[in-house]
Specification:
Number of strands: 4
Largest sheet: 2 strands, antiparallel
Strand content: 5-15%
Radius of gyration: 20 Å
Number of domains: 1
Order of helices and strands: HHHEEHEEHH
Number of helices: 6
């Protein structure tokens, strides 16, 4: 992927921001922003899925991107990449990401040798930010065209 000059990105962001400010209905504006932010989160989700180790495939499948209601005064919209709640993946994801030290398992009187870290989420987050920004801007442009703004 070729690097987009910072001035071009800044101009795109300023243009889209000006168009979004012209939308008078706050609900429409928030829906547009939420959809655009989730598009960026999906890029990170897909990277995390690509980097997640595969034993059963459940961990990859349980990585999701979603919009989240922000705390009051923090932001207008927010999106997150997370592991589905109440799944086995939710219980083990951090153990896979960070690994484990050797430890005793008292219930069966055994010693677990530990597990090597297999990071999948941090590398996904640390990946190319331009790809995420491009997805956000592209989705915002698409929604603005639909709204004829």
């Amino acid at each position: 992927m070729t690097k987009t000059p910072t001035s071009k990105i800044r101009a795109d962001v300023e243009e889209i921001t000006a168009k979004i400010k012209r939308i008078s209905d706050p609900k429409t504006k928030n829906n547009l922003l939420r959809t655009a932010m989730v598009a960026g989160a999906r890029v990170i989700r897909d990277r995390a899925r690509d980097g997640a180790p595969t034993r059963t495939g459940n961990l990859k499948e349980d990585i999701i991107a979603r919009s989240k209601r922000p705390r009051r005064g923090v932001a207008a919209v927010m999106s997150t990449v997370a592991i589905k709640k109440k799944t086995r993946s939710a219980y083990i994801a951090h153990l896979v990401e960070f690994g484990t030290d050797p430890h005793e398992i008292a219930a069966i009187n055994a010693v677990h040798p530990g597990a090597k870290a297999q990071p999948f989420l941090r590398p996904a987050i640390d990946g190319d930010p331009e790809e995420v920004l491009d997805a956000i801007l592209s989705k915002a442009r698409e929604r603005l065209r639909k709204l004829d703004v």
